[in-house]
Structure formats: structure tokens, C-alpha cells
Amino acid sequence: MLASFLPNSGMRFFVMLALNTCIIYGCFAQNNLRNFTAVQIDKVVYLHWTFEKGFVCTGTTIERSHTDLNFNKIGQIEGICGSFNEPIEFSFTDSLPLPNQLNHYRLKLGSSGYSNTITVLFINFNEDGYSISPHPIGDVSTIFIENKANEKLVLIVYDLNGQRVKKIETNTNSIIIRKEDFKSGHYLFQLCFENQKCLKGRFIVL
């Protein structure tokens, strides 16, 4: 019915496509969900969301994907979700997130459709506070560091003879390591924060 009032066939196509997308993926569910977030806390990912007042469904399925395409069920909250009288908050802890890669999450809200998809990069830091992926160093690898305050970091790489071969500065939580910058072998590195705290580690270049 709506399409008959639109001025041309191209516009009718895009409007009908949007309507069909809403029917399949649940625009109603998305519009009644707010503050859907995912954050890494130590070794887990903590999910939190709020249902708007007036929205209810039966059962909430938590799904995860590493591609943003093929999702798998990782949890289920039984019973009524939401309330006619007030906003309702829910949370879920993913205790086995996919390490050193993007984790995509969505909610299936009973028969009301799906939430939007949210994404978090989960880094499995070692006991020294860093992680290298992939390792040994491929064409391009990344050293991830816990740097929540975005402090200035200085990475200095040494060969096994103690000679400095590379210096990189950043204020983010990751540093790119390129194979082309090194000969094959073992390397030591020191990573220092502005507050003089330093981490030490090593990596292998094939």
C-alpha cells in the first residue's frame, strides 16, 4: 500500500527493501533496546542492555560471531524480558570470548527479532600485560598493550647482541610490527610508559 504513493519505481524498491529488512531483523526490537554495550573486563566480556518501558518478549538469546555474519548461541536468559511499567536492565558475561580478535554480539529477543550488532576487540593479555598476534611475526603483527589512559609509549627492540634495531612511539593500545623491518631471528623488546613503568618481552621473526 505504501509503495503506491511513491513517485518512482526506484524509490519504491528501496522503501520496500527497508521494510522487508525491518521485518526480518526486527526494527521494533532495536527501537526498544538501548545502552547495548560490550566491554572487556580482565579475561571476560561484559554485556549490558536496557529494555525500554512497554517492551516485552519471551526469552533472550545471546549470540556471538567472529565474522559479523555467522552467529552462534552462547547464552540464554529465560522468562519475560522487559516490562510494561518500567525500563529493565539485563547483563551477561561471556567467559570464553574469542582471543585476540573482534567479537561481534547480538541478541535474539524472542519472536520480536534481533538487536543491532555490537563489537569489541578482546585481547588475551599475558601476565606481563601484553599480547602479540599473530606470533611468530607474520607479514604484519600487532603488539597489544593495556593502555587505558592513552599514555605515551616507547617501544625499543633489540637483537640478541643487545643492539637497538627499532624504536616506535605511540599513545594507543597497539603497535604494528612489520616483518620487512627485521631479519629472521629472535628479538627482545622494552616497552615504557610515561610514568616510567616498563614491560619486557620477546618475539620471533620467521
Low-confidence regions: 1-26
Mean pLDDT: 85
Largest sheet: 4 strands, antiparallel
Tally of DSSP β-strands? 14
Q: Helix- and strand-based class?
A: mainly beta
The separation of the N and C termini measures 63 Å
Fraction of residues in H or I helices: 10-25%
Estimated share of beta-strand residues: over 45%
Label the overall shape: elongated
Radius of gyration: 23 Å
Query: N-to-C SSE series?
Result: HHEEEEEEEEEEEEEE
Strand order of the largest sheet: 4-3-6-7
Structure, explained:
- This protein has helices at residues 9-25, 27-31, and strands spanning 33-41, 44-51, 55-65, 72-83, 88-94, 101-109, 118-122, 130-133, 140-145, 153-159, 164-170, 174-178, 185-193, 198-205.
- The protein has 206 residues and is mainly beta.
- The chain has a four-stranded antiparallel β-sheet, with no helix packed on it.
- The longest helix is centred in the first third of the chain and has 17 residues, at 9-25.
- The radius of gyration is 23 Å and the shape is elongated.
